[in-house]
Amino acid sequence: MTPVARSPQQRRLDGEAQRHAIDCLLNCYLREYALPRGEACLDCQAQDLPMTLRHAEGRCVDIRLADGSRLALLADRTSALGRCRFVSAPYFKGLGQGWRPLDATELARLLLAPLNGPERHGELLEQIDNSLRVTRTFLHHARAANQEPAGSREPTDSHEPMDSLLLSEQGQVWGHALHPTPKSRDGVSEADLLACSPEVGAQFPLHWFRVDPTLVRHQGDDPRGLLARIAGADDLYPCHPWEVSRVLADPLVRRVRDLGLLEYLGPQGLALYPTSSVRTLYHPELSHFLKFSIHVRLTNCVRKNAWYELDSAVALTRLLDPLMRELDERQPGFALMPEPAASTLDLSAHGSAEEAREVTECFGILYRQNLDAASRARHRPRVAMALFTWNLDGGSACQPLIAQCAARLGVAPAEAARRWLRAYAELLLGGSLHCLFRHGVVLEPHLQNTLLGFDAQGLPCRVWIRDLEGTKLVPEHWPAERLAHLDERTRTSLHYDADKAWKRVAYCTLVNNLGEAVFHLAGGDAALEQCLWREIAELLEAQRAPLGDPPALRELCAGAPLPSKENFMTRLLRKADREAGYTALPNPLTAACRGDCR
């Protein structure tokens, strides 16, 4: 069969998907493997580099592999954390060979070859390829629909986007910048991708079942009124479109359907919008987000709602209610988004415990409180990941916000970036560290879990942290007897020891979140980058006394390395996300304090 000719536009978009896949792979490899082992140089001046790289603007990154072979490619910016943006193909030079360019698949095989566990490489290679294909699909359809990523279309006094939150939720074509498979969605057809993915601006109705009320279980607040509003009828229960075929094929579900207790009605009701997490759905007129189970691996995890996660999220909302009220007073502008309800179906009377648990997880829904309409209109909230990423034209998505802020403040863009970063970091660090060190509450404030709101000048004035599934408790603050009312498995899932707790919070706030913010706000300007890290260092130093000078924070301010989660090795070794290791990154805070950026 003669291959279908691809247009220049299609070839260009395929090239963009390739470049981003290479960017993710190499940034992961550099951070988790090559830089800690001294096997990479971020500004190589060697004379034997490929001719293409020697005569181009930018820094040449040189990576030495275990067998003595080398990789070289060009970056137009590098950071104090070793983060790069690559602007050339990677060139490979084997022993006794000349330089040759690699594509993403060849690069992945090369990088994996010397790592332990070769029997595990096949799965990761498949997921890397899947992520590349999905990214390519999104690029073609996002371009075709003229969809703009959040941050590229800015509000003005005369034109305000209807829903800044929705724009930012659905504008994240690239995903996690430091993950080897940021857009992998195993087992999902292209038709289903386009029907239900936020990256292409999807909206869709849920699939519904008429259910005998005796089979429905809910915890916390009663969600039946919300479900009835979405369905347009009472006594119906929904399922995500990607989960419905699994549900209909389940033997226990079939038996219960034969008994007349469950009837499949198909898709109907209000169309909802998928958010950046894919399985969490939003509608501006609803009081809650709905977080569904889907047995699809997104990046590292199969995104099902385990039965104990339904328990723990609602339990945490109740347990943390005093803290949420305290934050209003002690950390104004910083808030957690409650998850006051969960629901599922319980078919245990009609099957084994194992069969019933599978159905419980397939039908599990968590309900997260939405921001009210007045707050959305006033603060124009956005997901942090939609700001600290690239738009479809290759620019940093946050830069239009900074330009607008500079104009409103009447200052230079670099000064606006400094004030913007300080306002944001003060809120994020103040709230996250207060929760950890004063209350033993371990938040997960990474980019996708963080929403920002803005004041009239365009400066961050609100931070909301979401996803209580990822919130943990330090046993010293939350001993077992304090959680005695919870199921033992739920208690176990909630506890995190103090060392893991600090690494998780430090990684999420300082590496994943603020590290990417600094990278994009600095725009390759080393002096501005140092200035921004200095602002963060001053904020951390100021936190020590109010928090009782905790040793972990004191050591960080003195130069202890930053912990960086190993997404690449976690996926390679097929570990649960909870068991991810951490790489020690050089601390940019103390170096920044030796300079003067004012």
Could you characterize what this model shows?
- Helix 18 (498-522) runs antiparallel to helix 19 (526-544).
- The protein contains 22 helices and 24 strands.
- An eight-stranded antiparallel β-sheet has the order 8-16-17-12-11-10-7-9, sandwiched between helices.
- Residues 144-161 have low confidence and may be disordered.
- The relative contact order is 0.10.
- The protein is α+β, with helices and mostly antiparallel strands and 598 residues long.
- It folds into three domains: 8-118, Roll (SH3 type barrels); 187-369, no CATH class; 379-593, Transferase(Phosphotransferase), domain 1 (Orthogonal Bundle), CATH 1.10.510.
Structural key phrases:
598 residues, SH3 type barrels, alpha+beta, 3 domains, Transferase(Phosphotransferase), domain 1, 42% helix, Aerobactin_biosyn_IucA/IucC_N, eight-stranded antiparallel β-sheet
Strands side by side in the biggest sheet: 8-16-17-12-11-10-7-9
Residues in helices, as a percent range = 40-55%
Taking the sheet with the most strands, its summary is: 8 strands, antiparallel
Query: What number of domains?
Result: 3
Q: Kindly state the mean pLDDT as a whole number?
A: 91
**CATH class assignment of the largest domain:** Mainly Alpha
State which percent range the strand residues make up: 15-25%
The count of strands amounts to 24
Gross morphology: globular
Distance between the termini: 65 Å
The CATH topology annotation of the largest domain reads as Transferase(Phosphotransferase), domain 1
User: Which structural class fits the helix and strand makeup?
Assistant: alpha+beta
CATH architecture of the largest domain: Orthogonal Bundle
Tally the helices: what do you get?
22
Question: For the CA atoms, what is the radius of gyration?
Answer: 24 Å
Low-confidence stretches: 144-161
Domain Aerobactin siderophore biosynthesis IucA/IucC-like C-terminal: 419-579
Organism: Azotobacter bryophylli
Domain Aerobactin siderophore biosynthesis IucA/IucC N-terminal: 167-388
Family: Belongs to the IucA/IucC family.
